[in-house]
Amino acid sequence: MSDDYPTFERTLDSARMQLNGALDGVLKLELYWVLKEFFDRTWVWRTRITKPVYQQNCGPHYKPIELIPDQYPAQIISLISARIVGADKSRLVHIPATLELPDRVYVHEWAPIASWSQPLGSPVNIEFEVILSVTDPTADDGITYCPHWVEQRHGDTIMHGLLYRMMAQVQKPYSNLAGAQFHGTKFRAGCAYAKNEKQHGNIRGGQAWAFPQTFRTRRRGF
Description:
single chain, 222 residues, alpha+beta, three-stranded antiparallel sheet, 5 helices, elongated
């Protein structure tokens, strides 16, 4: 496993002790679904992507702009903002744009951008701030890719989510409806706290996570 991603070993080890007979493959698959629900609920995983935008990318017959290539292990689930990146930061201009397809964005108008195109017809750099979630259940070692701070800061919430999903399974040695309800409540409360904390700007450092350069040639497994 790359050092750029968490292993969730402590989470998995703790879950194994509480889930007698649970298979590792099932634990890791359920961990993926827990992480997906966590990111979809909280919107805490964000990054900024700068792309050159041409006139043909804008307007009624626009061409979509691909923000994250297929090889990246994440999916854009929402677009927060799009703005022109110029030399004068005090003159940043916000651009109307919409996320209409996974990992693709549409810029509505060229007019707000045209005056920044020098020489005429050259591209203008637009910074897109987006919200991410996990994609593809497993990597080569069966662990879902996501930033380190998730395990470091929200490990307890992820643990509750994993125990909730596992205990809710029927006719298993570890089936436990009361336990599932307890951990499900804890998981949802943790998600609500994380979302509220992010919205109020109280997260400390590192959550505008970018993909490490070394990942670009790494092959994912399924």
